[in-house]
Amino acid sequence: METQLDPMKDDLPLMANTSYMLVKHYVLDLDVDFKGKVIEGSIVLFFETGSQYRKTSSAGKECCQSQFDETREMRASEPCHIPMINVSTCSSKTEYNDFAVSGKEQEATSDENSNHSNNEQASGISSSKDLSDVENHGNKDFLLILDCCDLSVLKVEEVDVAAVSGIEKFTRPAKLTGVSQELENLRNQIVHELVALPADRWKEQLSYFTHCSQAPGCGELLFSTGTWSLEIRKLGIRTPADFPHAIRIFYKTKPEGRSVTWTTDQSGRPCVYTMGSPINNRALFPCQEPPIALSTWQASVRTAADFVVLMSGENSAEPVQLQEGILTWYYYVSMPMPASTFTIAVGCWQEVKQQSFKQTAAIETNTEFSLPSSQTDFRWHEEICGHVEYPCRFQNSAARLQAVIPYRVFAPWCLMESCEEYLLQLIPRCLSAAYTTLGTHPFSRLDVLIVPSNFSSLGMASPHIIFLSQSVLPGGSHLCGTRLCHEIAHAWFGLAIGARDWTEEWISEGFATFLEDIFWARAQQLSHDEIEGQQELKALLRWRRLRDEVQNSEEELQVLRPKKESTGELSESGASVVKYGLKAEKIFMQVHYLKGYFLLRSLARTIGEVSYLASLRKFVVKFHGQLILSQDFLSMLLEDVPKQKGSGLTVESIFQNWLDTSGIPKPLLEEGETWKECQLVQQVSGEVTKWIQTNQRIRKSSKKKMRQDEVVFQQLLPDQLVLLLESLLEEKTLCPRILQCLERTYQLREQDAEV
Predict the structure, then answer these.
(1) Are residues 185 and 264 in the same domain?
(2) Which residues does the annotated region (Disordered) include (predicted)?
């Protein structure tokens, strides 16, 4: 490694050397064991040589069909030789295990390998290889590094993709080289041709990935696990181009692993799900975590028949019975995404069905072909996508007209009625509002799951699936609708368009916070004045939250672009760190949401909302399926609205005022509290005055009972009620009777979670 990263520090290390080898596809084959609280199985990774090391290796040479047949015969008659080493004298700091042992020895070492540091994982293995040979090789052999944490790695092997029937089509039988092609090079050539198949052959590609993942192993590889990584090598292989491009890893998770949580749902049934851990998915499967490692995946998950498996796949999986009491669920994606977006939830979920389809059908009929006039300009214009090739919905004319994508809702049995009352009704309205604002839905379907009560957020978006907290269900439709809009917005910003550097999370959260207001206003079909009033009220609440957070947090955590000019830079190997990614207090901070929101709000007010939203749609069309930095968005926006250049608004000034500094942004301070003129805010101010005066009267005449007809309080919207309560909390003292009266007047126990 180029640098030794201290796992006890606040930065999250991304160890994978993606510049040398880049994963293109994962095939997971897993069993979920609720009794042992582990997920166990295998993962096959298919690679291409990375950008830092692309050379014409022997794998790229052409061979004829006769040579292919010859090598197949060689493989059948000659078993692969695995060099064996004596590791009993290895240093405890770094040990390599080749697992070339008898069945008993392998069984004995598997449990030892569950030790997180692998200090004793290979004890007892006898070998004819001397340790010094390994060390000599270690100076030259290529080392594949994957992100990995809290996993018990049992075995790593090369996959013999050349054994798959019909795979001959992925070799190049054009001309004789006069040299017998080695099996290793042939296998790498097959993987290279397979991952390079064009997008219109994605189904065929997926089928061959399946067959290749089931091919036999052809040689076990040396590996070592560290705190944050899995390191793999093959003796004598010195370059990424010659390293096996298809490897299989047998592993199991640990009950204490931080990528998934084992718990019970609200009905008391066991479940497990990915809850958005700061370490992402590296404790669920070995992977390449850097965002640049965009990959597709497919997964088969087996579990007891009582359970439903939901994943971030693009298909709505139907379970298949393997044996009595055991079902298998199969999901896949054809759009390359970072490994961090992989999501799974296994539980006794129930699908919430719509009892009356009239309202939903009417919504879908009315919105199916509704397009804003500003969007019709480029509706049928065939844009050339800038992303890597995949079956893109932006190139599909039917998908471009789909205002409401297919959706399902899942929940524990005890919450089904609550979901049917509001959530099921809101989804088509919010999807349609998002489509009207941004255009084509990047993903083809949507599942919404009400996750267990230990979920620490209100919501989390992944491709094709949204997790919502049970807290959004009570108290009417307001919180449920706004949170749903926020998570739907992530389909465009955060998923279809991702940050190239994870420290710029404002690109995801700032946009989703800004767009949730736009989506929710359109979903409610409010008038212009109503929209303006609600958005000003929301801006005031966010201003108060930002002010409080800035006053009570470390300055270094308030910067939206903490790496400044070095944002997006990687080491030569591709490894990097997410600055402050493990800092405990950062998990609870909203500065990236709030400052990002106020930046986008400021730009919209400066440019004009109509022009601004039109620019957003153009940005989505240009950059979907890609990773971006802040300057990509800001540069395109300012170029799209050239009149702003004369006003002194530049990318550099935005960096200086908004992204690279702590505290309240200077332009926001200069803007003034415009929301004070908002009628909804003034109404709250009047109610606050009434409550303060009532509180004072009660304190002065505590023996007298206050007559209920003395003061008439107005009914307030949920956001108004939040502002009222926040304002009253700033008073030094409130009488118990006032608190009781507040409860009775506004029925606080029946309000939403924000209240």
Answers:
(1) yes
(2) 101-132
